[in-house]
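Known limitations

Structure tokens in this collection are predictions and should be treated as such. Users comparing against experimental data should check residue numbering before alignment. To illustrate the layout, the record for gamma-glutamyl-gamma-aminobutyrate hydrolase is reproduced below. The input appears on top and the generated tokens appear beneath it.
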Amino acid sequence: MVKPVIGIIGNPHLVNDRYPVQSVGVSNIEAVADLTGAIPLMVPAIPKVGAISDLIDVCAGFVLTGGRPNVHPSHYGHEPTDKHGTFDPDRDAVTLPLIRECVARGVPVFGICRGFQEFNVAFGGTLHPEIREIPGRMNHRMPPDGTLEEQFELRHVVSLSDGGAFHRVLGAREVLVNSLHGQGILDRGPRIVIEGYAPDETPEAIVVEGASSFAMAVQWHPEWNAANDPVSRPLFMAFGAAVSGYAAH
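Generated tokens:
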């Protein structure tokens, strides 16, 4: 049986600070290869790579990865500020319509960190550029120092809605996750259902209401050590099962 293909959205990078490339983290590739039963394929976040319908014809599912540039606030009616950081308009042009089309056609899609924020913006939500500045919120950003293992270490719990999609997949009402983001959801989009919160009430796990297939996103990074993590492993396996089901039909 031919394995389905999962498209992993890439991000811009400069080799030696001068040569532009598109890249995908190895941990994303390994998580898909090890846990989904599918073939990982990097999708450049460049609009000219092809129409959204063409991408969906090639891939039976998509992972929207994290990335340093943020969604441009013009997509949700806000003005850009220094706190918004850098932007990637090419990725915005690919991912926002891709999310909507995947949900419309029942194509499984899994959002991670920036991908989580893209889910919300794609369905009419807004983002806050620095959630740590909201009273009562903690600093969710990546620790500036330490090894990768220390920066990606588990930092806080996420409380999940009873009986929700995440509760069903993970079999628990509380899970322990890492935290490496500065932005976060301000206002949720009309079709976005928040199923998980950090202890400071920052949204961490969402689903798209009425989606006929896997349409789930998390604010943390489940791709890190995915094969060995008790939260990451079932998430990627459930996503892989949805991809296999879509490909078969």
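For this record: The mean pLDDT is 95. The chain has one domain: 5-248. Please report discrepancies through the issue tracker.
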